[in-house]
């Protein structure tokens, strides 16, 4: 998930927490301390008998009217969160645990603070949305990222200050693993400045951690190493992820390992590109053979990505095409581009395909083919760029966030009905797959489920103060999530617009360079100089267990990625 989507995903929920609606309206009736204690004990007994509806009513009353005893009011809020959680009102319960943590002084974490933190982690794990806790942790005073951590002290113990008897409990180890992972990931999303601090938390996660937190921690540490240019160390950590024993019944670990394999491939490509640039500056010290070897290794690693998983198949094909291009293996590069034009990837959004094809034609001096490819690209993407800029201008209007989400839903319905859409199906697919939108829509479905649960409860609970208040929270939260989904769509459209604009500029540059090179050839011909055609030699670099098929106009699934298109260079000298 991107940093920007993580910053915004739960911003609305936390905003509601700080609003008066979360603190609950004060009632004219104030409870005495004796009444508070008696009602609290009664609620605990009801919870032990699994009578959570009635217990939540009593606890809600204490939270609303128990100002005479702040201690019991805090305890009641925590128990209220638990009773709502047991009724499967997970998102509704969040406000109570977040309120406890927000009101805890930064220098004094208490047992109830740690219990609230455990509750927040449990809610996040239950609904399967890690971004909830990642964004929340950065806003808790005690856990803020700007707090200085002693370099020689365990960061988890420093922040939580658990009592010795808490550390002896069997559940402490798993809680520690979860908290260390989430703290490390929340710091990771803040960028390279916080990588060192993030690493301190992530390395605390043990191999026995649940929910694949150990594999995720290794993966994040590998990404951080790659980000700061330590590619060899990054690959070592990716290899550790790949060495973990996978279980077919655990698709999450399989997904992490696939991403790790993808990271290894990209690291070898990056190493090759760095070596190639050094070769241009000092060809005697950094030889062509060295970086070509790294490019070959990158291809081998790309081919190890599972072919049955569509998630990276199209990206892998494009990146291997670019790798072949850097190796001057143009026939293989064109073969990969042919595969990407197959019906299997018709919804993929790759404006770079025609640019890479034009560059191959330009490198082999096929100038007419270059101009034809660039002209086709401009005709396809200039109108799209104009349309995207019009869509981005909606931001100047009122309620623009909701407008973006409504527009997306309309386009998606048209696509599902196989009707003409205003923007290409490939762009709609990109928006649909964006992690921020996936999270928003999952949360909206979850909150809709909770609204149905509230409406399906007994009339005594539904018509009580807590029932009415919970229903109001659900309505507010739905509006916030819909609005934030629109913000995420705007950012995605802006990224697409920038990418298309960049490729359009490159296309125009290629067009200009092509015309200049054609002019030079004509001038050389006019001077009467001898013109001979260069002979371009191709070396087929491949593993022995792969067969590459010449494309014959028909696509076959088992041949995807193994096509080649021979190209005869027309460069003159």
How would you describe the overall organization of this protein?
The protein has about 575 residues and is mainly α. It contains 26 helices and two strands. It has helices at about 5-10, 10-20, 20-25, 35-50, 50-65, 70-85, 90-100, 110-125, 130-135, 155-160, 165, 170-190, 195-200, 215-225, 230-245, 250-280, 290-300, 310-325, 330-340, 350-365, 365-390, 400-415, 425-435, 435-455, 460, 465-525, and strands at about 550, 565. A two-stranded parallel sheet has the order 1-2. Helix 6 runs parallel beside helix 8, helix 12 (about 170-190) packs antiparallel against helix 13 and helix 14 (about 215-225) runs parallel beside helix 16. The protein starts with a helix and ends in a 9-residue tail after the last strand. Mean pLDDT is about 85; it is low at about 1-10, about 20-30 and about 530-565.
